[in-house]
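If you are new to this repository, start here. Below is one unmodified record pulled from the training split, so you can see the exact layout before writing a loader.
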Amino acid sequence: MNFINELFFGTGIAHSVFIIVIIIAIGVYLGKIKIFGISLGVTWVLFIGILFGHLGFIVDEHIISFVKEFGLILFVYFIGLQVGPNFFSSLKKSGLKLNLLALLIVVLGVLITYTLHRITKVPMSTMAGILSGAVTNTPSMGVAQQTFLEMTGYADPSIALGYAVAYPLGILGVILVIILLRYIFKIDINKEKEDIEQSDNKKETQAQVFSLQITNPNVFEKSIYEVKKLINKDFVISRVLHSDTNNIEIAQPKTILNKDDKVLLVTNLQNYNEIVQLLGKPIEMDKDQWDKLDHKLFSEQIIISNSKVNGKTIGQLKLRSNFGINVTRVNRAGFDLVANPNLTLQIGDRLTVVGSESAIYNVEKFLGNSLKKLNEPNLFAIFIGIALGVLLGSIPFKLPGIPEPIKLGLAGGPLIVAILLSNFGTRYHFITYTTVSANLMVREIGIAMFLAAVGVSVGTDFVQTIVDGGYIWVAYGAIITILPVLIVGIIGRLFFKLNYLTLIGLITGSVTNPPALAFASSLSDNDAPIVSYSTVYPLTMFLRVITAQILILFFV
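And here is the target side for that same chain:
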């Protein structure tokens, strides 16, 4: 039975792998347990790792280092792929206000951390770990560790210890603020839900189908191409029912519109009124009625899985002239977009097309329409992206006032590259698409590896650190958690008049706190908290990583 003893208490690779995966397995299992509807999730892996370290299980330091760094790289890279497509768009329009408030929460948290550092004389490296735990942001803890190691040449276990003791109240503190704001402002959840429904911007911008009758003499005997030049709005005329012949045809740029012709139109509510004024009057005629009038035309959704289509615009593909079909809508991540000729298509987009059965069959072959192909991972893009991220993270930058050059590191580099590639990669036919389930799996594996390695490496000193005064770090973490979100929550409601459901999504997103988001979402049956969470999450995640590095670089 010596092999069992070697497996549990040895020093080889098999021992190291065995201990790490056991830690992960136990932590993941415990992460499914909820107390009062709240779970620490994958963070249990960190605590189980600390327990194993405290009990004397030792893992080779080189293996621990590799598992920790590579796990962190996987996690932040796939986080970047997830948030990247919406990163820049989230900074526009209504998202700008939410992101500014999220930025204020981040800045306040950093200022409070610095103030506590000056008052208490707790080392900034430890305070950076407490900050990461207080805002439940694991990547920032990883960046703080790696930056400290590169600056000093040795590791500081207090970073992970500070994170571990502050994390539980990081979750509970935000939930407490959500409840507190509800009572401070005497929130009526039902009224907030009604207000959201009445001012739903998503409905305003989402593509919808309408039927109109041509009654404006100014467009009589004009082609659709000429009509579209008269108004600078996104809309697609899918089909035309001619009043003189009672025939239906797929709308072409050269199709002539005449008096009392009926058209099936795709646009959004923001543009609808102006288009109605241009063309004529709305009529009661839904899509099913159009389908019954002409059995030769079909409408189907086709998935883009052909890599040659990736990064091209609808206009460049010339689907109408080459295949005799009309693209009316593009569904991307569950959101319908008007099929503007300038819209750039991506792998995974779903095109709603109208045409004959044979035409749809031909365009299916061209676009791919293969779920199986989409489920195949693009490993080349993943590993090249990670390589570029590591390269970027290793480049030293010289900044005034800092004696040593700084680096983005093994977390910052891959995160930035992933955001850029997922945003701009399509322009160069670089495919970064991964299914939601694949992205989530790799992220969870990466963060579990990282937390297990961190936990077992700091577990030896954990109890002694708490006994020697580390328990006070819990209080510091609670202050960092509660004060910024409470202040901004009050500002957002009083001065920006934010809807409560939007506000609590903003708060949970600014501290990247999924358990608190789950609690916020349970207060309403709509997706308002999730929408605002996802709006601020990309920028917040980026800022948390960067500010953790700044605290170490400037104040250690």
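Two things worth knowing about this chain: DSSP finds 24 helices and eleven strands in the chain. The mean pLDDT is 81.
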